[in-house]
UniProtKB/TrEMBL annotation:
This is GNAT family N-acetyltransferase. Residues 14-171 form the N-acetyltransferase domain. GO terms for molecular function: acyltransferase activity, transferring groups other than amino-acyl groups. PROSITE patterns: GNAT.
Amino acid sequence: MNTTKNYIFTSERLGFRNWISEDVEEMAQVNSNPNVMEFFPATPTFEQTKAFVERMQKQFSDKKYCYFAVDILQSGTFIGFIGLSDKDFESDFTPCVDIGWRLSEEHWYKGYATEGAKACLKYGFEKLNLEKIISTTPKINLKSEEVMKKIGMTKVKNFDHPLLLEDNRLKDCLLYEIINPG
């Protein structure tokens, strides 16, 4: 467990922070679960998880947002990530800022993804003055689409994800967005 908690912001039950090196092992455990990674083309290796954490640390340093490491406030337990990240793959809606989440399976169905995503939208709109935030998911990922709806996002379109064109199961994706209400 992390002993020093430097939360950038919190929600009712969750703390959002930049990544620390001790998170790599715990995130690698989340990433190794085939149920967590069901709607991704592959399970990341430990080295890929480490590189992801380093990218998030750099992005936070540069932009003051990332897919934040998330802890349960009451216990300090790391549960995965929820946050904002740049997307720049080839499409008609990039570059853009994406909201996403990946939580350990034992923390599913507790409302954490929805609660955390709402807090990240608030941070993105009120603190960072972002104009628009998008989210994408394979069409078959009904759980993530449900979170998108619960946090007030609107479906824009279906699209073939350029990074998933070789994966017939995952390439048909949904694009949702939400505009800064302020």
